[in-house]
Amino acid sequence: MDEIFDVFDEEMRLLGTASRQEVHRVGHWHQTFHCWVLHRSQAGDFLLLQRRHRTKDTYPNKLDISCAGHLATKESPADGVREIWEELGIAMEFARLHKVGVFQSANIWQDVQDNEFCNVFVWVRDEDALTDYRPALEEVSGLYLIRVEEMERLCRGQLETAPVHGFDLNDAGVRCERKTGDDAV
């Protein structure tokens, strides 16, 4: 069964609902939940990145923010915390997240017109371990930490690659560790 999303005009005024397939075919504006996980430790500040599973309909096998997903019809941004559970395997209370804001994102990926109102949040963790994450195999094929400073430099175009550390997941869910410097984004 196809998911149903609320659809909006460019000013974020509710227009009605449409199926996920129609939303991405036509390019209707819709809402998403985005959560950046910031790991703070003695070694520094790191952002969590996920590698999207190779079977995802948009951006398969690409690095992505820590956790993201569409909001279904009548869902609020607070309901988006289910994505943290679905993708990362951690139950989360919405009150623990810090709101960054809402931004508009318009992208075309192959035949998908993805016009989103992205509700962006940050979850701050005082640790650098990835051991408590239980990524969903159908969603995520790896989790990696990247230094905040290096992520900023990548986004500004000052670096072409940067070291990460974390793990890849094979199809059986076995973690294959990646150490700093073994891989670059």
UniProtKB/TrEMBL annotation:
<dbReference type="InterPro" id="IPR000086">
    <property type="entry name" value="NUDIX_hydrolase_dom"/>
</dbReference>
<feature type="domain" description="Nudix hydrolase">
    <location>
        <begin position="28"/>
        <end position="168"/>
    </location>
</feature>
<dbReference type="Pfam" id="PF00293">
    <property type="entry name" value="NUDIX"/>
</dbReference>
<dbReference type="InterPro" id="IPR015797">
    <property type="entry name" value="NUDIX_hydrolase-like_dom_sf"/>
</dbReference>
<protein>
    <submittedName>
        <fullName>NUDIX domain-containing protein</fullName>
    </submittedName>
</protein>
